[in-house]
Every structure is written in C-alpha cells, then in structure tokens.
Amino acid sequence: MSRINRAVLPLRLVLVALFAVVLLFQVLVVVGLQPGEDGPGRFTYLLWIVIPLAVLGLLCVQVVIVCTWALLTMVVRDRIFSEDALRWVDAIVWTIVAGLVVLAAAFVPAFIIADADDAPGVAAIPLLMGLVGSAVLLLMIVMRALLRQATTLRSDMEAVI
User: Fold this and answer.
1) Is the separation of the CB atoms in 57 and 106 below 8 Å?
2) Which of 40, 52, 88, 109 could form an SS bridge with 46, CB 3.0 to 4.6 Å?
3) SS3 string of the chain?
4) Is there a contact between 34 and 60 (Cβ–Cβ < 8 Å)?
5) Contact (CB, 8 A) for 60 and 96
6) How far apart are CA 86 and CA 80, in angstroms?
7) What's the CA gap between 48 and 33, in Å, rounded?
8) Angstrom distances, CA of residue 25 to CA of 22, 54, 149
9) pTM of the shown model
C-alpha cells in the first residue's frame, strides 16, 4: 500500500465524520433556533434570516466535503492530473465564494445583535470566519494553479514518452 493510499483512508474517515457533524449542526440550527415557549424574543425576526443562512453556509461545507471525496478518489486511481480534477477544484472554489457571500449576509444580523446586546464578539465571529474562508479560497486558487501546471507537465511528459 502506497503512502498516499495510507493517508486517503483516514482522511475519508475524517470527511465522513465531518459530514455527519455538519448535518447534525444543520438539524440543530433548524430545531434549536426556534422561538422559545415564552413567546417571541427581541430578535425573533432575525431568525428568519439567520436559520436559512446557517443552513446554506453548512451546505457549502458539505459540498466542499463531497468535492474533496471525489478528488481523493481521483488520487487513488491516479487520475488527479486531469481536466476532471480541475472541475472539482473549480466547484470547491465557487462553493467557497458562495459560502463567503452567505457569511457576508450573516454579518448584518450579527451586527444588529452585537449592537443591541453590547456584545461585540458576536459581530467578530462572522468577520473571523470570513478571514479564514478568504484564506482558504486564496489557497485553493493557488492549489488550482499548481494542479493546472502539473496537469500540463504530465500531459507533455506522456506525449514525449
């Protein structure tokens, strides 16, 4: 068993666990953010914004997990240096962009809650997540360029051989 194959199995196990946890969070967001029994609270109107945004943001994470799984399958089959792999990486990049848009939309309700409750940390959470998401997006763009280069080099080598 090659070194890459020994790393793929644990990574797949982590991806399955992560997918399950994200799915659980989606359920908890929908169930847990419902207005309480004591009637509507001060920010109940924001729940109609926050719940769909949270579910969409977590859905973006799930899409990235599925794309990563597909790329791992290509690695195992030694097909990673192909145009198909670039399509999966493009899907990851565009999903991260969509996630950042969802996160930007979540900043407004977070800012309203932070301002009203004098809790600046609430507004800092989407900001921090946006910075991390932006770093991952830029990293994926660099990785895509490297994959493109490696794909071109491999096809050139195959043409020579």
Assistant:
1) yes
2) 109
3) CCHHHHHHHHHHHHHHHHHHHHHHHHHHHHHHCCCCCCCCCCCHHHHHHHHHHHHHHHHHHHHHHHHHHHHHHHHHCCCCCCHHHHHHHHHHHHHHHHHHHHHHHHHHHHHHHHHHHCCHHHHHHHHHHHHHHHHHHHHHHHHHHHHHHHHHHHHHHHHHC
4) no
5) yes
6) 9
7) 10
8) 5, 9, 38
9) 0.85
Task: Report the amino acid identity of residue 67.
Answer: C
**List of the chain residues with pLDDT < 70:** 1, 34-43, 117-118
Kindly state the tokens that stand for 16: 């399955």
What digits encode the pLDDT tens for the residues 26-45? 999 888 776 665 555 666 77
Residue 32 pLDDT: 76
Categorise residue 132: left if φ over 0, alpha if ψ from -120 to 50, beta otherwise.
alpha
Question: Tokens 């109107």 correspond to what residue?
Answer: 45
Residue 150, both tokens: 């490696």
Check the CA dihedral 79-84-86-88 and report its sign. negative
